[in-house]
């Protein structure tokens, strides 16, 4: 039987446009509460074609069962693609399938083992180096900033090995941050696009994007000309061949895929780490249990992926943190054709927003959902078959880098706890700032003390 889905009125959606921009999560939560429902419709401009849902059956249907009927919406395939180009994250249909088949093997376990060495060195040095950089036994860091620096270094080295220097890495990080900010304005306040054009914001962003493309193109050209083999992601992307033609990727496609890996892989992991350390500091009993596991583990010789993936407390802590603070907190699709899901009528052109944060914090699916309880996870989990837990998405478009991200998270947890005692600066209130990813509004200040 068809279920009636409540809808926000046009007037209310127009009046709340600014609130939605400043505080989208609260706005969504308020509607879900008012309507006493897990799904509601709302407007994009004058069209009532947005469906926001935390219904797991709907998520499973859209992302897996009938995924062919649901493409990435214009937000990703056009607005995001304007800056990131047409790579895995932003493309659809047969182009996506062709690219996914080509790139997926590079992220298989056997290949990841070869990036592990690069990642391990970068994380170990980055974290040990914090105390040297601050020149103190006890110091305060902006955790988000430090984690973003670390994950930007890791993804840069995994892509280009030693072929990028610190100045270039910083430039790439800053450019991606700036473009993300511009994008979130385009997404949430599309009606003010003319203003951004008028005041030159759009031009300034295009300039940043062009400089970024030129830098990455230079790296690709250099590697091609020098034919050096580094065993990194760039090598993998240069070596893969399309099955049908036996040819490699065009330079433009290569550039687009690299930008996508940067954009999808850097800030997501940094945010995941920042939230995890915050939660650990707020829950000393779990902090202590993890500390014990870290102190009884030695990575100094021949680190293997299996070792990193077989640490139970590490796995549970990161799984639970990704539940409470999923860095990608909402994902969207557009319906190509009519459909019906769990009694909900879907019209052609409807935009479906799967509200991952809501699913992860729903009382329907989780006991005491707001409690940080790593023991609710039995072991390493990246998705549940009932689609109630989707930190890395689900179905065929599941995050290609989820194992890469987990390795990075596990190694960072290990080295931070191995070298430092962590404490939150008590003089702060940490608020959420949901842009494209879920980040803390004004960073997280953390006091680090060197362990003897
Ligand atoms: C904790 C860290 C991460 C989280 C939470 C995360 C989350 C996600 C999610 C939810 C999706 C699905 C989006 C959708 O269906 O619309 C996705 C896709 C993707 N992720 Fe991740 N990700 C993380 C790290 C990474 C890393 C490290 C990389 C690469 C180095 C990466 C590369 C990608 C790519 C390329 C896609 C698009 C896949 C496709 O559509 O075929 N991600 N990620």
Give your account of this protein's structure.
The chain has 452 residues and is of the alpha+beta class. The protein has one domain (54-450): Cytochrome P450 (Cytochrome p450), CATH 1.10.630.10. The chain has helices at residues 10-15, 17-22, 24-35, 56-65, 74-84, 93-103, 109-134, 143-160, 166-188, 193-198, 201-226, 233-239, 251-265, 267-282, 284-295, 305-309, 312-324, 356-360, 402-419; strands at 39-44, 47-53, 70-71, 138-142, 331-335, 339-341, 344-346, 351-354, 420-424, 432-434, 438-440, 445-450. The protein has a 5-stranded mixed β-sheet, with helices on both faces. A hairpin with a 2-residue loop joins strand 6 (339-341) and strand 7. Helix 8 (143-160) packs across helix 9. The mean pLDDT is 90. The structure holds protoporphyrin IX containing FE (HEM).
The tally of helices reads: 19
Q: Uncertain runs with pLDDT below 50, 5 residues or more?
A: none
Rg, Cα atoms, Å: 22 Å
Write down the overall mean pLDDT. 90
Return the CATH architecture: Orthogonal Bundle
Helicity level, as a percent range? 40-55%
Derived from helix and strand composition plus strand pairing, the structural class reads: alpha+beta
Ends: how far apart?
65 Å
For the report, how would you describe the main beta sheet?
Answer: 5 strands, mixed
CATH-level-4 superfamily name: Cytochrome P450
Quaternary class: single chain
Strand order of the largest sheet: 1-2-8-5-3
Ligand species: protoporphyrin IX containing FE
